[in-house]
Structures are given as structure tokens and as C-alpha cells.
Amino acid sequence: MLIACHAWAYNNLPLEAALGTIARLGFRHVDLGTGPHLNINRAIAQPQAEARAIRALLDRFGLSLTDFYMMLPHINAPDPIERETELDLFEQLIPFATALGTPGITLSPGLVQSDGPDHSVARSVVALLRILQAVESTDLRVSFEPHMDSVAHTPEAALLLLDAVPGLSLTLDDAHFACQGIGQEALEPLLEHIAHVQVRQAARGRLQTAHADGTIDLARLVQDLHMVGYRGALSVEYMTTFGWHAMQKVNITRETVLTRDALRAARASLEIMPARR
């Protein structure tokens, strides 16, 4: 398993400085996403040139790309114009994502919208089917992240979405479950669907905590992933959106390093045994 860092941890810095910081912390793999580090208009208008510029930065700092997070939380908006705008944006970014060389794209499955969860889920299914169809001619993996406020905020809801959209995979961020008091045993049905993993510490009622205050057993998480044959990336993802679902204001660099070291230790201690398929 690769250990990566999400560039969103350093959204307060230009992309070059963020990647340099991540490389100096000893990472060799990185997640990127939409937001202040990406000029969306340039990525759409000049996908090859924009991707080339970002790849040059990655090469300069010895980093490989492990995921590209597009967000797009309103792919299931009640307003068809808003919905179509987000779906069009996804389709317009496919040439950029392909040129960037990302192994996969992570999306929000869509928020629970104003007309309630049932309608929101139904529109999410239609949108995600369209998204998968849009990448059929590429090698891009598409995953959704079960997150707070989304139509897939619990393991059960995530499984329903996976069943409804064949070919879709999952990006796991267990902090969203830990925040709801959902224990790690509830992750077992999801493990075989996981294509990417994001990691930070959290606790009941707090979507982000200092490493020492978190309740996620990282050693168990790594072991469980190993046992189902997961060999992808574990991306450390501390966030600067302090206050959202009681995200604690932490020292991003210190907590990133502590979590990185815990993941390294967990990976090093894996028992040598055949994966369970």
C-alpha cells in the first residue's frame, strides 16, 4: 500500500508550495483536487497544457498522483440546470484528468437535497450512471466518497448506491463514519468495493481531531484492507475546513506526520498471509 498526502491540507499555499511541503514531509505520492490549486477554466480550455504544467511540478518534487477529487456535490440537484451544469463540468474535465494521468477520480455522491433523501438518491443514481458512461472509453476509475450530508453518509446507504450503479467504486474516509459513532466493524461490507482511501483521525461528533484524540484504529484499518487484497493508496487528508461537523483546528503538518508514521507502522507490521478474495 502506498502512503500519500492530499494537497487540500495546504490549500492556503499555491500548488507549487503545497507540493514542495508534502515532498519535504517524506511523501512520494499525492492526491489533488478541485479548489484553489486548480484553474478550472484553463483545465477545460487547455487540458493538455494545464496537465503538463502540473505534471512538471509533480516530477520536480518526485511525486506521483494517486487520485483527483472533483467534488461536484450537486450532481443530484432538484434544479435540472444546476444538475446539468455539474455533469457538464465533469465531462469537460475528462480530457484534463486523462492528460494528468490520474488513476482515478473521486466524487461526492451528491448531497441530500431540499426535497429529501429519496428523490436525492434517485437523481444520484441517474447522474452516476451518466458519469460512468462518460469515462467508458478511458482507463479512469470513478469512486464516490460516503461523506457527511451526502446521500451515502452511512455504510448501508453507500452499499445501496453501489448496488444501483454497477462499475462504481468507493473512496473510503472513515472519519465520516467515526463522526457518527459508526464502528469499524460496519465497514466490512464495503471493503471489497474500495478503490481509494483517505485517512485522518476523528471521533464521535468531531469530523477531525488531533491524532492522539481520534478513535479510528489505523492498524485495524490497514489490516482489514490488506486482507481483502487492497493495494492502493492511503492518503493522509487533514482539512482546513475547521468547524464543519466540529472539525477541530489542528496543526496540519504535525497531525499529518503523526498519521503518516502510524500508517507506516501499520503497514510494516502486516502479517505475511494470502489476501482474502
Q: Would you write up a description of this structure?
A:
- It contains 9 helices and 8 strands.
- It has 277 residues and is an alpha/beta fold.
- The protein has a single domain, classed as Alpha-Beta Barrel (TIM Barrel), CATH 3.20.20.150.
- The chain has an 8-stranded parallel beta barrel.
- Helix 7 (175-178) links the parallel strand 6 (169-173) and strand 7 (194-199).
- It is globular, with a radius of gyration of 18 Å.
| CATH C-level class | Alpha Beta
Structural class: alpha/beta
- The name of the CATH superfamily reads Divalent-metal-dependent TIM barrel enzymes
Number of helices: 9
Uncertain parts: none
Q: What portion of residues is helical?
A: 25-40%
List the secondary-structure elements in sequence, H or E: EHEHHEHEHEHEHEHEH
Mean pLDDT: 96
The largest β sheet comes out as:
8 strands, parallel, barrel
Question: Beta fraction of the residues?
Answer: 5-15%
User: Using DSSP, what is the number of strands?
Assistant: 8
Descriptive key words:
277 residues, single chain, 8 strands, 15% strand, 9 helices, TIM Barrel, eight-stranded parallel β-barrel, alpha/beta
Write a brief caption for the model.
This protein is 40% helix and 15% strand. It is α/β, with parallel strands linked by helices.
